[in-house]
Automatic annotation (TrEMBL):
Taxonomic lineage of the native organism: Bacteria, Pseudomonadati, Pseudomonadota, Alphaproteobacteria, Hyphomicrobiales
The AAA+ ATPase domain, residue ranges: 48-220
Key words of the record: Cell membrane, Ion transport, Iron, Iron transport, Membrane, Transport
Record carries keyword Nucleotidyltransferase: no
Keyword Flavoprotein: no
Any one GO MF annotation of this record: ATP hydrolysis activity
One Pfam family it belongs to: AAA_23
InterPro entries xrefs: AAA+_ATPase, ATPase_AAA_core, P-loop_NTPase, Rad50/SbcC_AAA, Siderophore_ABC-ATPase
GO cellular component terms, semicolon-separated: plasma membrane
Mode of membrane association: Peripheral membrane protein
Entry protein name: Predicted ATPase
Amino acid sequence: MGSRGKRDINLPAPYLKRIWLDPERIPDRDAYPFCLPFLHDDFSLTFDRAITIIAGENGAGKSTLLEGLAVMAGFDEAGGGKGYRTVDHSQAVEEGGGELTVALRASWVPKVSYGWFFRAETFFSVARYLDAVGSTSADFLSYSHGEGFLRFFEERCQRQGIFIFDEPESALSPTRQMEFLKLLYRMDKSQRCQVVMATHSPVLMAYPNATLLEFTKYGLEPTTVEQTDHYKAMQEFFYDPRGFVEAAIEEVDLEEREGDA
């Protein structure tokens, strides 16, 4: 039995099996977020593994998609768990996921009632609230940013449920990202946790037992970490750090000269 008398489901993750777009429920095809390139009329996303990782550049729609998933799962679009509303709701990034949910459909087998939507932008609002009400391992804010994140994850991600992470690496050093990978492994190994995560970190993208997808001009496409733009950029940097930085600076000087011409 889980807490509050809720019985665990005797099935392994993933529980959310598929989402798809219902074109008939789109209020305005030209309005955001429905104008995003990946949201074509036959958009569909299948979850066949417990962990799904999504890569892509800023503005591609990663946060919008995750926010839409979170609302479908019963979480607040600003972050948190079911029935939880952040203290400062104005901190939520207006990504359009709430609007997206109107036109999304989902297949659950079965639908789980527990989980969490993590957003870096609202973490401290969440942490202040949990500290105030006496979370079981409270006092998140007495730790460094990265330590607070990890402590929060370790407390919240032990139960059966669906967990949605929007760029968890934002406050994690490379060493802390390795610790987060260990947490992902424990969640995966338990077979009781489904994870959907958007990230820019090649370290997190490299988790071995995940479905890795990348936003392209054609939509969400399966990929490998070595094929992502993030990995290629980091590879160029590590091959020649000084030359990589100098080339970037030279581009700035060139753009300024062209602007003055």
